[in-house]
């Protein structure tokens, strides 16, 4: 590892983004203090425990612990910091706009503890265009003995995906730095030098991908950086919705969406990723960010029909899963449905806006009983989905036993290699509605239905009960 100019960094907020940022910067050689108002989280982190599940993060935390401190105390951390990251949550309000209460609170607490020298305040939370200026005003109002040139606000949006957060942070496609003051961009370029030059030793558990060279550095104005974050998420969301819309037509004209997306994805202008048709997107970002853009458009009297359609199609996909079940089973009342996968995507225990949630809710409304399984998220669901009525299965086998149908809602790797021939023998009716395209081979007995493809069955299923 090349020696680096080590900076003092404070990271406010220890959610997915804050925690990942803090641990990654410490790994790169900086001295980092993570701040959170939640004493429980700080106690856990101080003990070396993680409040979230993210593959590899536990190991990176161990490898970086000498340069990491956790606290609830702004006054101890902010005056020492050369760079202060704001990474607090921005949950959606009923209007669709993000709730900026925590950002305002963090900015105020930062302002009250600035040291009077040049400090760079970085917005990493996803915030509407214009928030950087707003944060600057909050700091100006609350800074003690405010005078010019004592701080610079930079927007540095985060593009990491849950489940692959370490990989995305260490080997990003680009680093976006938006500021109206070149001193902010200069200091962050210094902070990110090990990433920009890829001069750090890659951890064995997150190896540098072969062929990867360096991230692109994109420097912009403050508002453009804020817009880049929203536009990127919105584009990815609409790419998925586009695939889902075409999938619906594929079903009607006897085409196969997997063949179609492979065909269009080979065009380098389109690219193969984010074209997997299925139950649609979930998670804390795409829904929130598309709604926020639409509602920003409304504020300016500007309609955004493409984004509205993307959201509508996404909603439709969740209903589609249920109607496929209904086509096969007719009345769902009294039927037992096994739901495989609860997290909004694999390799995370995050349940926010997970399509599985809406499906379980709808199934029980229709009178079905649900037995659900997830390799990681079941424990969290016990706390966060206590309003839903389902039973937990300790294994896939237990979930599927006696079921009238299986619904695959998350593409966990462990669901890709299941012995469906064996599993189906234990079912009341051997039917798989695979909303994530994980089932490759059609089992000996039974039917598999995937989104955008012809239903497949080798032989007529024998209903054993
Ligand atoms: C997303 C973006 O991908 C990140 O770049 C961004 O930093 C992040 O939001 C954020 O704003 O914080 P994430 O929400 O972690 O990341 O999850 P994705 O991997 O993007 O998946 C989102 C959803 O789309 C999942 O439910 C996934 O199952 C679904 N999806 C994804 C599809 O239905 N089809 C696809 O082809 C790809």
Q: What is the name of the CATH class of the largest domain? A: Alpha Beta
Per DSSP, the total helix count is 18
Number of domains: 3
CATH superfamily of the largest domain: NAD(P)-binding Rossmann-like Domain
Question: How far is it from the N-terminal to the C-terminal residue, by CA?
Answer: 64 Å
Going by CATH, the architecture of the largest domain would be: 3-Layer(aba) Sandwich
List the bound ligands.
uridine-5'-diphosphate-glucuronic acid
State the shape. elongated
| Strand line-up across the major sheet | 11-10-9-12-13-14-15
Structural class: alpha/beta
- What is the typical, i.e. mean, pLDDT? 94
Q: From the alpha carbons, calculate the radius of gyration and give it in angstroms.
A: 24 Å
The oligomerization state is single chain
Q: Helicity level, as a percent range?
A: 40-55%
| Total number of beta strands | 15
> Regions with pLDDT < 50 over 5+ consecutive residues?
461-465
For the report, how would you describe the main beta sheet? 7 strands, mixed
DSSP strand content:
5-15%
Give the CATH topology of the largest domain: Rossmann fold
